[in-house]
Amino acid sequence: MLAKKQDELREKMKRLQEAVDFIDWKQQLYDDILAGRVEYHSDLKPPTE
To answer: Which helix (H) or strand (E) holds 11?
Structure first.
């Protein structure tokens, strides 16, 4: 019973870590864009000229 609960918690921890890693990646991307280290292109809004 405890082993099953432990396995479930380890799987949940893995999913949570993956979510944190994604947020970290996304934050770094935003920081890089704002600092001008990465060029940003959006497909959501046509460019203004």
So the answer is: helix 2-35
Instruction: List all residues 6 or more positions away from 32 whose beta carbon is below 8 Å from its beta carbon.
Output: 38
Question: Torsions phi, psi of 4, nearest 5?
Answer: -65, -45
Secondary structure of residue 25 in the 3-state scheme: helix
C-alpha count within 13 angstroms, C-beta hemisphere, residue 12: 6
- Is residue 30 very low, low, confident or very high in pLDDT (cuts 50, 70, 90)? very high
Between CA 7 and CA 3 the distance in angstroms is: 6
Q: What is the pTM of this model?
A: 0.73
Q: Cβ(32)–Cβ(38) under 8 Å?
A: yes
